[in-house]
Design brief:
Radius of gyration: 16 Å
Helix content: 25-40%
Distance between the termini: 35 Å
Number of domains: 1
Shape: globular
Order of helices and strands: EEEHEHHEHEHHEEEEEEEHEE
Number of helices: 7
Strand order of the largest sheet: 1-2-3-4-5-7
CATH architecture: 4-Layer Sandwich
């Protein structure tokens, strides 16, 4: 079964539509403030309520799950993610204690705090309980998506990647551009996760932030 990945660039965060013979699959959903832009791009891709089969969140951060509940209600598509990030989306624990290794990211977080951006996103977030919990090694062929699920903790405990049979990898925030995540729950876990991805030798990598890129043997750092 063929699977075509379409990049939905929402500015500071990415979503992806995967088109197969069975229909469409949405990977990550952006924040509520970008909802209208996301809907326009879904419509342009040909994705509507009748052919969206599954919404998959690569992890629980609000910039990836912020529209999950809305889209589930609008399109009638179930939401899937890893159980380890359940508290983030069900209970609103959106800011787990993590290490920020990038000076730029620390500055942006500081600005967001000053302007109240983080608090506003938390207020706008619509909590939900996923319909499906994905596990490491699980195949999604029964839903019409030719891929395997990989549990890749480190950025969050429940981060997952999708390795399509074509060799394309959708990895959430485990990789940002061609660099490891700069917001880290567990550095050792992140290193192991990236090392595991290297062993799969993917072709094109589709990250949660930045442009898709060709895998060139990125080393875990």
């Amino acid at each position: 079964m063929n699977a075509e990945v379409q990049w939905i660039n929402l500015g500071f965060v990415n979503c992806y539509v995967i088109k197969t013979d069975a229909g469409f699959f949405l990977v990550d959903t952006g924040v509520p403030a970008l909802r209208d832009a996301l809907l326009r791009k879904l419509d342009a891709a040909g994705c509507d309520g009748g052919n969206l089969k599954l919404i998959i969140a690569t992890h629980g951060d609000i910039d990836h799950t912020g529209n999950c509940k809305f889209l589930r209600e609008k399109y009638g598509a179930p939401v899937a993610m890893h159980r380890a990030d359940l508290a983030m989306v069900r209970d609103g624990e959106l800011n787990p204690d993590r290490t920020v290794t990038s000076a730029l990211m620390r500055f942006l977080q500081f600005l967001m705090g000053l302007t109240g951006g983080v608090a506003k996103m938390a207020r706008d977030f619509e909590r939900f309980t996923p319909d499906l919990f994905l596990e490491d090694g699980q195949r999604l062929d029964e839903y019409g998506l030719p891929c395997g699920v990989r549990h890749i903790p480190g950025h969050t405990d429940g981060s997952i990647g999708l390795l399509l049979d074509s060799g394309d990898l959708l990895c959430g925030d485990t990789l940002q551009n061609d660099k490891p995540a700069t917001i880290i729950m567990d550095r050792a876990e992140l290193r192991r996760s990236i090392g595991g991805l290297a062993g799969m030798n993917p072709k094109t990598v589709y990250p949660g932030h930045g442009k898709p890129f060709a895998w060139t043997g990125l080393a875990a750092r």
